[in-house]
Amino acid sequence: MWLSEQEREEFVSLLAARARNGKILFILDGLDEISTDTQTIRGVALEPFLKHLLRQKHVVVTSRPSGVDNSILPELDLELETVGFSKQNVNDYLSNILKPEDSRAVRDFIKRTPSIQSLANIPVQLDVICYSWDSLSSNEQSITMTGLYQTIVRRLRCKDAERLQKEVETSLTSQRIQRLPQYQMNRLIAIESEYLSFLAFKADAELNAGKDDSQHAWYFLHLTFQEYFAASSIVRHLQIKPKIGSTLTTSEKTKAHIQRHKYNPRYQIVWWMVAGMLHEEDLASFFELLQGVPADLIGGYHHHLLAGCLNEARGQLDDKSVENVEMQLRQWLQLKMMVNDNGGGKSVLGGMSYFPEELLIRSIGQPGATRSYLIRTLAMRASLTQPSIEVLLKTLQDVQGRNLHLRGTVVETLGKQPTLPESTLQTLVDALQDRNWYVRSSAAEVLGKRPTLPRSTLQALIGGLRDNYMDVRKSAAEALGKQSTLPEPTLQTLVGVLQDKDWYFRKSAAELLGKQSTLLESTLQALVGALQAKDWYVKKSAAEALGKQSILPESTLQALVGALQREDWGVGKPAAEVLGNQSALPESTLTALVGALQGANWNVAKSAALILGKQSTLPESTLQALDGALHHENEGVRKSATIVLGKQLELPESTLRALAGALQDNDWNVRKSAAEVLGTQSILHVSAIQALVGALQDKDRFVRKRVV
């Protein structure tokens, strides 16, 4: 749109006026891109201008948290942080996008590949993984991080080749591109690949020089893609003579670069990917470089590097090379065991997913091995394979009756696994009878992680509720409580427990029954009986269990009213709470509550009034009974009756007359409540209006205020 100079001035004046009046929303998108230093435009400093913008009435700011100087930010009304997918989000996304079998395969791959786990939390990265999954090997156990990125890049190159209108004799369609052999695709995208490799090292050089990432005019989708293209460039320079102008000019300089940076943490994944891309002599030569000088004098980081590279390159290495690297890792593990054999040590390296799990398994059975150390190391891993779980189960059986600490460590390790095979079930049930309380408690915790348990296991857990140790009882109760539905025989066992002498046992049984969505009438009656227990915790648990039932049968409601009217208020109070949670009570229960309202016990009467007040509509017989309660000798009962009546939308004439009479009550609270109720009625009888007029002369100002 073209504006004349006068129109521009008018437009600027209008904007300035609107801004002063707070009529403009300013959106400062990417504030961190310009607020990292005192930048200028045409010699004018930006910082004062930014501060002026940030002081406006309506401002939306987007920025990376680390990229903004908080001293220039005003106090924010609302601050939000963009976070990645949670573990559940990832699972839900995979279930919605992929076929069930592919979804499970991707989930397992993410679980056992630590470097992918953080990437999968980023929606765009997870989408790329799903996009490329059908092009990966059908044997997901053989998929490495390098293989995944090679497939992702190939899929993206196919898409880019079509978009860039690449040609091989004739223009390429997407179908032809998909069928191109790898070597031909590499030639087709050679220039772009070279440039991406150049950018990968350029970005690294700029970061090393201290330049802020916000100053880049281009970005990789994720740091791992930059690492992938950097690794590709290194591999290319190791295999062929470099071209003039390449970032690395000779193979010797490439090797020198590897030697100089092999222990640089920022290059860790680069070296893993280099190992994953190389084959045969080139791969053997690369491992020689890693093993050569300079050496890691302490050894820790060197073995992390070897384990990660072995994890990526195992399929390309010959057996002798694999054995050589594994021997070094095993020796390092044995050294750490000797140094840290203090009863609580574990190997950080062994806990990494890229460390060969089979080395830990084999070491457990070797003479002189510290099994507790190795098992604690296994517990650090995100998930264990079936062979490891079988070794743990065998260890638990071998040390039955001895080495209490080791048994507890094994069960605790099993408990950290997200899923366990069926074969572990009986071993864990047997562990519930272990002599050591910690083993019993840990076994109950592990069983509680299973969504469905057989009846025999549930009965064993119920037995755990009688354990002498509180921790075991608590773990058993929590395990049972995590079962969404308990079978009827188990529920009947819990009903029997409500009569037990041990108060904690009774309390736990009531809590577990309360977690079931539907209970039989006989079970509900047993819970009502538990309201009469001497122990407050048992009564509270029974009341909560009853209160969680959306609908209670009339017989149970009558029993609750009976409990409400008991002299022991410790019984009556939880009964009142349960009745108050019922949205619609039958007339017989309402009548009983009115009777309780007119009783001598003030606590009972007040509770009955509160329960009645929660009912949206009361029958006429109940309203008439409430009319009588307006004449009760206790002023609290009279006030409660007026409050209950006030919650009804329409009241009969007889009730309105009774309320008009309450305006003469001796207690000012009753008079005030009566005036409030009459004020809510759209139509009043003449006698009620006259009573309200008379109340204008009331000696209490609060009563007069309600009348007005």
How would you describe the overall organization of this protein?
Pfam families: DUF7068, HEAT_2, NACHT. Residues 104-140 form the DUF7068 domain. GO terms for molecular function: oxidoreductase activity. Residues 19-98 form the NACHT domain. With 708 residues, the protein is mainly alpha-helical. Among the domains are: 18-72, no CATH class; 386-484, Leucine-rich Repeat Variant (Alpha Horseshoe), CATH 1.25.10.10. Helices cover 62% and strands 3% of the residues. The chain has a two-stranded parallel ribbon with strand order 1-4. The protein has a two-stranded antiparallel sheet with strand order 2-3. The chain has a two-stranded antiparallel sheet with strand order 5-6. α28 (536-547) packs parallel to α30 (569-580) and α29 (554-564) packs parallel to α31. The longest helix has 21 residues, at 319-339. Mean pLDDT is 77; it is low at 206-216.
Brief summary:
With 708 residues, the chain is mainly alpha-helical. Among the domains are: 18-72, no CATH class; 386-484, Leucine-rich Repeat Variant.
